[in-house]
Input
Amino acid sequence: MRRETDDYWGESDVQKFAKSSEIFSFDNEGDRSENFFSGTSSSKVHSTLNEVIGTGGSTSISVTDSKKKNIPDLSELISEKSLNIVLEADHEFDPSLISKGKIPIDEEVKLLRRQVQNRWDPIEEKITVQRMVLGQPYTLELYKTLDRKKNLLNCAIDVGDGAAILAEAADHYIHYLSTRMQVNDLTDILTMLGRNKDASMKQFEVACQISNTQRQMKRLTSCVQNHFTGDKDRFHVERFIKLLADCLHYSCKNHWTKAKNAPHSPFMMSQQYGVNDKLFQWTALVVHAEMKAWTDIDNIFMTKQWLGGSKLRTALPIEYVVKKLYKLEAPTETLVSYIKLIDNLDQRLSVAKSIRCDRGILDTYTAMRDRLGLINYLANLDPRSEDYKYAEQLLASTATKWKN
Output
């Protein structure tokens, strides 16, 4: 895993990503001589240094002269450590003297030998940072492992001019987490950097890529609750979630009778977009109950058998279906037919009582062969009601073998 992580930083997509930067790029750029402060205040730094140290002149400048020439204070442009590197560079060997023929031949050979060796072996990170500060040729190509890059970053921060590098390093790390789909870590780092909107949009992007509609809805809902705090953004995401649900709702309502393999069929839509059976059946149940299309509900939960008859096929607990039908004011006949589909008689009786379905209660007592229970419940019914007459018929029937 560590090897894979290190190799990541040398991959082509990271190199391409890094080309947008001139400060902390790890692409195969070869030797470079751009100034370390490129993109921010490079010209100001050089002009100020020239004014201060010139080409061998005095290393001081009066406050009066500074005000007259409108020269910014050095502390605003460069850290003290970086300035010391620049000033101390006057005492070091200048590689440019080679081309001018100002050094002995043996020194030139040693220098060239060192340069060839350094070309293939990464030099100490501190020296590379010094070269970046001085605007001397440098290369980042050989710093391929993550540890070496971290060391390079720490050296730059230690110099005191790591703000720009930190920003660039953060972008590299964000890109790394993004390509590896480490969403939680990516969200954490974006939040730490104060990029809350980027964090929320990344969560939204990941949620939109989930093919299973049920999981996608849950992820989007979680995304809204935990990441979208702004009213405007929250409103749009909530509209998006509602749109997903509305599409299935619309298809069930307007294209239910089409062939199951038709493009706009709700059955085909559920297959194409990974809608699970629970979501599909619940949506279809609500749609047809709202339309009072009670006979169509059987097509949701019942399947025809080869030898005739029908069989229950539901991904939803049947007691939930019964209670939902009751809330949507289904007729007694529909309620009774679905109450009978509850296998456990005790649970069937409990559900029938919870929705006060007298006919369902009477049928369940009969199925339980509980004559005393049926008689006790009969006492609560209006003698003039149809259910009272129905209970009397059940008690008089010889088809039931009562247990009490």
About this structure: The first helix runs from residue 2 to 8.
